[in-house]
Amino acid sequence: MELTLIKGLRSLNRWIAIIVGIGLLGVAAFVVLDIVMRQFGRSFGGTEEIAGYAMALATAWGMSFALLELGHVRIDLIRTRTGTFAKALFDVFAMIVMSGVVVMIAVKAWPVVARAITNGSRANTPLETPLIWVQAPWFAGWVWFAIMSCLVTLCALSLVLKGRHGETEPFVGAFAEQDRL
């Protein structure tokens, strides 16, 4: 069951990554077009603001993809010198800590969004973008990452408790070791 869930989450996050990637390509094309227009004395204006929003959204939503593709940085000096069971314990511990941090970020991000809703906040820029347009999907990305990290942690913990610690390596292990397998 755990591995089936991880496989489904991986597939879902790949689709999200494709959508986010298409969005980034769209923003890049917009910026390039704006740069070309500047050569002729014209400009859309606000491209740096829009690019900044795109980067914030891509980061928030991309974290879940990086998690399931073992793309997060890990310092595994001790872990590499241990057996399968100890590696699984280190991995579960790392996931518990990561989940705690990400859940805390998601919880602390809500007041930012709530204030933007309450105040009808707009960016202090020429575009005067309603901040909820950016903060709501940004917050949703952090919540998604929190959900993903908690589900991955629970799957890894479940496998370890069942004595199937070797099966945790492909989804919570260290990427460097994946190259050696």
Describe this structure in words.
The chain has one domain (2-180). 75% of the residues lie in helices and 0% in strands. The chain is built from six helices and no strands. The longest helix is centred in the N-terminal third of the chain and has 37 residues, at 2-38. Mean pLDDT is 88; it is low at 177-181.
The proportion of residues in beta strands is under 5%
Fraction in helix: over 70%
In DSSP terms (H or I, runs of 4 or more residues), the helix count works out at 6
Ends apart, CA distance between termini: 24 Å
Global Rg: 20 Å
Number of domains: 1
**Element order: H for helix, E for strand:** HHHHHH
Q: Count the strands?
A: 0
Structural class: mainly alpha
Envelope shape: elongated
Query: Which stretches are low in confidence, meaning pLDDT under 50 for 5 or more residues running?
Result: 177-181
Determine the mean pLDDT. 88
Looking at this protein, list some descriptive labels.
single chain; 181 residues; mainly alpha; 6 helices; 75% helix; elongated; disordered C terminus
Fold blueprint:
Layout: H1 2-38, H2 47-68, H3 84-119, H4 131-161, H5 169-172, H6 175-180
Helix pairs in contact: 1-2, 1-4, 2-4, 3-4
